[in-house]
Every structure is written in C-alpha cells, then in structure tokens.
Amino acid sequence: MKQKMTRTEFEEKLIEIGAHRYHNQHPFHHRMYTGQCSVDEIRAWALNRFCYQRIIPEKDSYVMAKLESVEDRREWRQRIVDHDGEIDDHPEGGLRRWLALTTQLGFDKGYVMSMNGA
Q1: Residue 45 and residue 50: Cα distance in Å, rounded?
Q2: Is the CB of residue 85 less than 8 Å from the CB of residue 92?
Q3: Distance (Å, whole) CA 82 – CA 96
Q4: What are phi and psi of 58, to 5 degrees?
Q5: What residues have CB less than 8 Å from 74, skipping those under 6 apart?
Q6: Which residues contact 106 (CB under 8 A, 6 or more apart)?
Q7: Among 33, 42, 59, 71, whose Cα sits 20 to 30 Å from the Cα of 26?
Q8: d(Cα 74, Cα 81) in Å, to the nearest integer?
Q9: Across the 118 residues of the chain, what is the mean pLDDT of every consecutive 10-residue run?
Q10: Which residues lie closer than 8 Å to 89 by C-beta, 6 or more apart?
Q11: Could you say which DSSP state residue 4 is in?
C-alpha cells in the first residue's frame, strides 16, 4: 500500500501536475491565443467557461463548511467573493465578467443564466 503524502509532498505534486495539465497548456488554449479559433468556437468556449465558473462558489462554500480554522474559512470566503463579487468592495466578481463576455458574444443573458447551454 502506498504511504500517505505529507502536505508538502501533496502540494509539490499538484504543482507538478499543473505545470503540464493546466488549461493554458491545452491545444485549444494555444489555438485561441494565436487567433486560430472561429467565432463559434470562442462563443462555445465562453459559454462553457461561464457554466464552469458558475459552480465554483457553490463548491467553495461546501469546502468552507468543513473547515474548522477561522483563518482557512476566511481564505475560502475570499474565493467566493472573487467569483460572486461583493456589493461594496468587489462589485464586478468574476462570474459577472463571464456573463458580460457571453452577452457581448451574442448570447441572451437569460439563456446563459439558465445553464441550458451547458
């Protein structure tokens, strides 16, 4: 049986995996950044990214609910604010930016919010 990794070993392994498998290494990402994607491919990508980003704050809140440390909860709370925004300090959360992009690409806001295109 494999021995459990230490926290440091686990973090190092994640960084190693990320260096090779993170989204910026994907062939589509390279095509997009070199102008080789069609408008429809960009539209589909933006809609997909909105749907993905829409779920992140929910996932983060589940993780946060399991944390015992106040400091850890505060760190995860910030992740939620970064996506959802906050009325005073962060009115343009990441999710709103993705929604703006999808509507600028011609999608109806209601359709995007419904996640029917996922």
Answers
A1: 9
A2: yes
A3: 10
A4: -65, -45
A5: none
A6: 43
A7: 59
A8: 10
A9: 88 88 84 95 94 89 92 87 71 81 95 88
A10: 81
A11: P
CA distances from 102 to 32, 61, 65, 111, 118 (A): 16, 25, 31, 10, 13
What is d(CA 94, CA 54) in angstroms, rounded to the nearest whole number? 9
Q: Model pTM?
A: 0.74
DSSP classification of residue 22:
S
Contacts of residue 50, defined as CB under 8 A and 6 or more positions apart, other chains included, come to 95, 98, 99, 101, 102, 112
Is the CB of residue 111 less than 8 Å from the CB of residue 103?
A: no
Tokens of 47: 């809609």
Paired tokens of 41: 């491919």
Question: Length of the chain in residues, anyone?
Answer: 118
CA 10 remoteness from chain centre: 21
113: left (phi over 0), alpha (psi -120 to 50) or beta: alpha
Q: How far apart are CA 64 and CA 19, in angstroms?
A: 26
